[in-house]
Amino acid sequence: MKIKELADLVGISVRTLHHYDEIGLFKPEKTNASGHRLYFEDDLEVLQQILFYKELGFPLKKIKEIIHSPDFDRQEALELHRKTLLEKSCRISKMLELIEKMIQHSKGEIRMSNKEKFEGFNFSHNPYEQEARERWGDRAVDHSNNKIRNMSKEEQKNLEEEMSFIYRNLADLRHQSPSSQEAQSAIHKWFEWLNTIGDYSLEAFKGLGQLYVDDKRFTKNIDQFGEGLALFMRDAMAVYADNSQQ
């Protein structure tokens, strides 16, 4: 089929397909006598993979690396897509259930404990992993992931609970000065926690704090514990890094 036919079939614009071609992401191998691009069954499968990865939040540059790698296995990729989407569906269901309970709680229809208010959050999942790979490279992220995988289920659960405790504690302190002794003591625990699963220098720690504010996805997620928490953590992390380097 020609490019317009493919665009209509898939539901994306011709301009998008032209862009994919220009960057070497999705380029048909054949053209007709007039020079028009021609797409075949194999091309459709490649495009489907691109759209799967795009839906999961991968940048085009990374998608190009993946699907054009000699080690790329389409069947394995499909299995991974299914697993990822099922996990995402499960998380959304849990969050919807939590929100329904919170609505009932706010109306006074039920009473929830503080622990129950955070049961829908899953800190073992990192929705910003791809962002981290783009900023700090695959090696650093893989090192962190391997640390977590080598932990027992109980150790992972304890790690999640500790993270939740640190966030709640910081949320309670967010109206204080980021340079206060209490704030710095709390942010020190966050620095130690991060280095439990990774290898953060003071400079990287400070940069991560800035990302909490620059990236609205981070801000939205962190501020669920208290409005303004991301900004407070950014400032506290900067003070901590600067003071520790003196």
Could you explain how this protein is built, in words?
This protein has helices spanning 3-10, 14-22, 41-55, 60-67, 74-106, 129-136, 138-149, 153-173, 181-197, 202-214, 216-222, 229-245, and strands spanning 30-31, 37-38. The protein is built from twelve helices and two strands; from the N terminus they run ααββαααααααααα. The chain folds into three domains: 3-67, Orthogonal Bundle (Multidrug-efflux Transporter Regulator, Chain: A, Domain 2), CATH 1.10.1660.10; 74-120; 137-246, Globin-like (Orthogonal Bundle). With 246 residues, the protein is mainly alpha-helical. The chain starts with a helix and ends with a helix. Helix content is 68%, strand content 2%. This is DNA-binding transcriptional regulator, MerR family. GO terms for molecular function: DNA binding; DNA-binding transcription factor activity.
